[in-house]
């Protein structure tokens, strides 16, 4: 509703101006109905202009994007929003990891909502834009919806949370922080905020912080919860302003994007550089990324949206999945410490919203100890070590929709692709 009030005057203004132009082109010796209408149109346009100006002022006051951007975000596909925000580059490797490509057929049928259907049916039903399957390090399937291609930068949405986890694991191994550290000891700006003295890095990793920022994705109610954090132009100020709890830290697993954002702020602080630069130096380059990525910011030159909004080509999401599947290694190099992969693969004590979870990675219910990075609107990096399978699926599907069914289809595909290799 708030968004509608902000963008409606701006959206209507061009139509009012067009009406004025049409009316003014008519010249009559006698004042007719059109001539009498022109002053009213001028008045209406002036009123709309004032409202539009107020809308611009309101967005500036609320520290959210301008009305043009808000209007676009309300209507564009989730796969297209990355270019509407400022971003920082994530440099690729000068020597990209070569992906061996050996196409072969996928299993004929996978389970979907109580039936066995072709995988193409699942991709269509979930508005998939890219679908890549790797087994034992070999890319066996690569498909893009028309309008998308191998060079397209796809938004990760919350898949970025799982990437942040890998960076945290590296920082812990390097002695820069510990899981038991209170947040307030790592972020000086939060020293005087008692809530953050009670929340530890482990609480953030396992989504047990208890911070009262609900997972709201409604574009028409953009000042509440995660939507407000997504739109703010000052993420550190947003975090500081939301120092309230709904549960005791460590006591309950509740999915909270703000937990990951705080982890991102911590990483930037302990490294003394932006999150995108850390990612480039410590994962993107050493894993052999083939293309530069971008990470969206709250404002030009500002802070990365650590909880979402890493934009990369689909093959680099595959490379990331292969690195995790290989216990953090790429060739002979340990990019992520093996013990951190073990941490990810071991479900935390508290389930998150009823699902097993650990250090920003989901565990697939009734799976083969498989794990997945999952992003809203249908983004997945699915890893099944039993069959050596990595699946990347990037979509424009509904918010948090059909996740269990999609993971069940991926599990079936992984099992049917080849016999277990261990």
Give your account of this protein's structure.
The protein has helices spanning 2-24, 33-62, 67-75, 119-125, 159-173, 183-186, 194-198, 201-205, 225-231, 235-241, 257-271, 275-284, 314-325, 338-345, 403-417; strands at 87-90, 100-101, 110-112, 115-117, 128-135, 138-144, 154-155, 293-296, 310-312, 329-330, 333-334, 357-358, 361-363, 371-375, 379-384, 389-395. With 422 residues, the chain is of the alpha+beta class. A hairpin with a 2-residue loop joins strand 3 (110-112) and strand 4. Helix 5 runs parallel beside helix 11 (257-271). The N and C termini lie far apart (54 Å). The model is unreliable at 1-42, 44-48 and 54-61 (pLDDT under 50).
Judged by helices, strands and strand pairing, the structural class is alpha+beta
Strand content: 5-15%
Spans of at least 5 consecutive residues whose pLDDT stays below 50 are 1-42, 44-48, 54-61
- What does the average pLDDT come to? 86
Task: Specify the biggest β-sheet.
Answer: 8 strands, mixed
Envelope shape: globular
Helix segment tally = 15
Count of strand segments: 16
End-to-end Cα distance, whole Å, is 54 Å
Task: Tell me roughly what share of residues is in helical segments.
Answer: 40-55%
Spatial strand sequence of the major β-sheet:
2-6-5-16-15-14-13-12
> How large, in whole angstroms, is the Cα Rg?
24 Å
């Amino acid at each position: 509703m708030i968004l509608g009030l902000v963008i409606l005057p701006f959206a209507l203004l061009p139509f009012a101006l067009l009406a004025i132009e049409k009316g003014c082109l008519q010249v009559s010796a006698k004042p007719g109905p059109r001539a009498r209408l022109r002053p009213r149109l001028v008045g209406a346009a002036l009123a709309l202009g004032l409202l539009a100006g107020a809308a611009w002022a309101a967005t500036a006051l609320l520290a959210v994007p301008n009305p043009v951007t808000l209007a676009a975000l309300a209507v564009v596909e989730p796969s297209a929003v990355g270019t509407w925000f400022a971003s920082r580059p994530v440099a690729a490797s000068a020597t990209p990891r070569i992906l061996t490509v050996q196409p072969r057929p996928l299993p004929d049928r996978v389970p979907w909502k109580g039936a066995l259907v072709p995988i193409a049916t699942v991709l269509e039903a979930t508005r998939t834009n890219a679908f890549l399957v790797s087994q034992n390090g070999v890319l066996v399937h690569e498909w893009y919806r028309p309008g998308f291609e191998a060079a397209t930068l796809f938004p990760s949405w919350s898949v970025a949370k799982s990437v942040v986890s890998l960076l945290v694991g590296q920082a812990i191994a390097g002695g820069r922080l510990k899981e038991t550290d209170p947040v307030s000891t790592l972020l000086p700006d939060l020293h005087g905020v008692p809530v953050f003295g009670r929340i530890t890095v482990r609480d953030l990793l396992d989504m047990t912080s208890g911070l009262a920022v609900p997972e709201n994705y409604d574009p028409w109610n953009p000042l509440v919860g995660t939507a407000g954090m997504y739109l703010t132009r000052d993420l550190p100020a947003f975090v500081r302003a939301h120092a309230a709890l709904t549960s005791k830290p460590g006591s309950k697993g509740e999915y909270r994007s703000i937990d990951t954002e705080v982890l991102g702020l911590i990483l930037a602080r302990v490294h003394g550089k932006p999150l995108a630069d850390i990612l480039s130096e410590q994962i993107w380059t050493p894993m052999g990324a083939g293309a530069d990525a971008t990470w969206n910011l709250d404002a030009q030159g500002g802070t990365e949206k650590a909880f979402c909004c890493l934009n990369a080509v689909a093959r680099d999401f595959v490379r990331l999945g292969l690195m995790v599947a290989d216990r953090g290694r790429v060739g002979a190099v340990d990019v992520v410490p093996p013990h951190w992969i073990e941490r990810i693969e071991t479900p935390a004590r508290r389930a998150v919203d009823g699902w097993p979870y650990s250090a920003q990675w989901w565990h697939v219910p009734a799976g083969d100890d498989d794990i997945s990075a999952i992003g809203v609107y249908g983004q997945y990096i699915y890893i099944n070590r039993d069959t050596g399978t990595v699946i990347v699926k990037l979509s424009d599907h509904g918010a948090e929709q059909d996740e269990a069914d999609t993971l069940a289809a991926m599990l079936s595909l992984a099992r049917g692709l080849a016999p277990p290799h261990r």
